[in-house]
Amino acid sequence: MRLQSRTASILFFLTLTLAAVSQASIAQEKEIVLLNEYFYPIEKSDSSDYVYKSIITQINDSSSVEYIFTRKNQLIKNVRQAYNAEGKFFEKLTETYDQHGKLTSKKTTNLDNTMYHAAYYQDEQYLGEVIYKGPEQFETRKAGTADVLMLNANEFEPTPSTDKLLWQKHLMKKLRYPPHARTNRETGTVMLAVHVNSNGIKTKITIANPASVDESLAEEALRVARSYEGRFMTAVDLDGNPIDGILLVPIRFKLS
């Protein structure tokens, strides 16, 4: 009886030890991913042209930490994903830094509904904060005032824009499913990067996520975007000055 008890204790200890080793190995798993200027992974064949380097550490099955560096190993962003403190939803905590390592923003995003709360800084001075409550609903507070504004865009993250209805009509009229992609049941979302200068002129359109979409889908998205004749509005900084910007536009290809 004593031998059985001792054997059971040893087996229990070994089980705990193996579980601990397994958890430790998970915690130490790291993945290095090379990114382009839009923070999307690039093809291995293009590794010499990377702009950023991402190092992802998997803490456990539901949480991870990601650090993003420039080619000169300057930390510009860190991202932590895990369940919130109450365990009610999955959230993403993002911090960004300028070229001097100073904090420029802190954002907490609810990954279940994409709503977020973000605070912004410049030279370590608080600029303001935004609570995103849904499409074109940005509750905004700025430093130096107690006013709360409900705006249709996040002024702390200025991007160009265009008429959404006109863009949708253009897609419905011009977009075609490439025969090659249809035959091979290729699907996915092509993310277009539309560069617009401070004069509102479209200077370049490219694919932000080429490594994750079929080439024929990407080519069709580019063809349609380049034929779009709608006007683009410039991005505007906090002082109201027009600036160069990039508008990321998703085009989804789906087969029934």
TrEMBL record:
Its main location: membrane. InterPro entries: TonB/TolA_C (IPR006260), TonB_C (IPR037682). Coiled coil: none annotated. It is a single-pass membrane protein. Pfam families: TonB_C (PF03544). It is found in: Membrane. Keywords: Membrane, Signal, Transmembrane, Transmembrane helix. GO terms for cellular component: membrane. Residues 1-27 form the signal peptide. One of its GO terms (biological process) is transmembrane transport. Residues 162-256 form the TonB C-terminal domain. It comes from the Bacteria. This is TonB family protein. It comes from Algoriphagus chordae.
